[in-house]
């Protein structure tokens, strides 16, 4: 998707996007995917890469410093890079130290992202979906749309 | 999730299935441990389940996902209890091993049978079944706004173990 490299959406794009009728999504979106150590983050990454390969959206993957992480940030970065490199998508990864939810919303706001994407939550032994504190914080505090990947 | 806390003291003993009682609507409800023979009756119950009564993504809505989900609930070590009325399964409660020596609990009652005390009896019998099978630590998650369910769990002896997540987590020591 060479489109990716050419489509860093500047202010003009963003202004134009706001004027588009709702449901009109042909203009590339700037997506910020946040993943931590939990399996739903990696699932979300794989699904988002598939989607972005089709849409040509601009994807940045934030590697979050989550408490309940099954592996450390180095391993997380490696896992994420492996999956990105195996795809056709030129996504940037970025380590995000500090409080995951607030850092993610702060970056999204400051850098003009259109949407935050997160994993859809963990399943309990029973199959119940449990949303983590990052998802809760972002859903309540982000001023842009949030997608939970299922 | 492995650092979950439990009450220091165990609760008193609960009744053990099989048992039967008259519910708030005068119906005779039988409560018994469920096995593979009850599988199809459980599928029927969940096909009839009101989607508005779903919580945290379960039960699934369509029959195939329901079957897959129920298959997973009948793993070795899981304890299932059903409530029957006129042969039909109208309620289901279970303890699911969590891989850390404890059990996750859930209860489901068909919409037309709610508000008649069936959930309460199902839970008592399930916990009694658990006690008889040597279960000591049980936990659950419940949506924070679901006051009736939270009140019921408290009445049975559950205490809040984590109030910081999206869902409230409660635990009990049998």
Give an overview in words:
The complex is a heterodimer of chains A (about 150) and B (about 170). Chain A is α/β, with parallel strands linked by helices. Chain A has one domain (about 30-150): Rossmann fold (3-Layer(aba) Sandwich). In chain A, about 45% of the residues lie in helices and about 20% in strands. Chain A has helices at about 5, 10-20, 40-55, 75-85, 100-110, 135-140, and strands at about 30-35, 60-65, 90-95, 115-120, 120-125, 130, 145-150. Chain A has a 5-stranded parallel sheet, sandwiched between helices. A two-stranded antiparallel sheet of chain A has the order 5-6. In chain A, strand 1 (about 30-35), helix 3 and strand 2 form a beta-alpha-beta unit. The radius of gyration of chain A is 15 Å and the shape is globular. An 8-stranded mixed sheet of chain B has the order 1-2-3-4-5-6-8-7, sandwiched between helices. In chain B, about 35% of the residues are buried. Chain B is globular and about 40 Å long. Chain B is of the alpha+beta class. Chain B is built from 4 helices and 8 strands; from the N terminus they run ββααβββαβαββ. Chain B has helices at about 40-50, 65-75, 120-130, 145-155, and strands at about 20, 30-35, 80-85, 90-95, 105-110, 135-145, 160, 165-174. In chain B, helix 1 packs across helix 2 (about 65-75). Chain B has a domain at about 20-35 and about 75-174: Aminopeptidase. The interface between A and B is medium-sized, with 14 and 20 residues.
């Amino acid at each position: 998707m060479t489109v990716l490299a050419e489509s860093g959406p500047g202010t003009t794009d963003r202004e134009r996007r706001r004027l588009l009728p709702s449901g009109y999504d042909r203009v590339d979106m700037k997506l910020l995917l946040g993943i931590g150590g939990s399996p739903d983050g990696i699932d979300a990454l794989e699904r988002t890469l598939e989607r972005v390969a089709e849409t040509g959206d601009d994807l940045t993957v934030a590697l979050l410093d989550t408490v309940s992480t099954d592996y450390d940030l180095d391993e997380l970065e490696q896992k994420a890079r492996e999956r990105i490199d195996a795809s056709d998508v030129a996504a940037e990864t970025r380590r995000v130290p500090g409080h995951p939810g607030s850092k993610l919303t702060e970056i999204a706001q400051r850098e003009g992202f259109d949407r935050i994407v997160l994993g859809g939550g963990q399943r309990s032994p029973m199959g119940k979906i449990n949303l983590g504190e990052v998802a809760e914080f972002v859903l309540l505090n982000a001023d842009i749309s949030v997608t939970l990947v299922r | 999730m492995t650092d979950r806390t439990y009450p220091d003291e165990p609760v008193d003993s609960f009744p053990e299935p099989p048992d039967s009682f008259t519910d708030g609507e005068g119906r005779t409800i039988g409560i018994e441990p469920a096995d593979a023979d009850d599988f199809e009756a459980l599928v029927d119950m969940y096909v009839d389940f009101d989607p508005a009564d779903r919580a945290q993504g379960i039960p699934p809505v369509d029959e195939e996902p329901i079957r897959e989900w129920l298959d997973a609930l009948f793993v070795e070590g899981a304890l299932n209890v059903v409530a029957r009325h006129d042969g039909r399964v109208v309620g289901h409660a279970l303890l699911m091993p969590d891989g850390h020596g404890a059990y996750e609990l859930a209860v489901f009652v068909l919409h037309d049978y709610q508000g008649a005390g069936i959930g309460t009896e199902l839970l008592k019998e399930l916990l009694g079944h658990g006690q008889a099978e040597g279960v000591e630590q049980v936990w659950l998650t419940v949506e924070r706004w679901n006051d009736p369910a939270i009140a019921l769990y408290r009445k049975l002896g559950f205490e809040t173990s984590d109030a910081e997540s999206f869902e409230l987590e409660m635990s009990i020591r049998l």
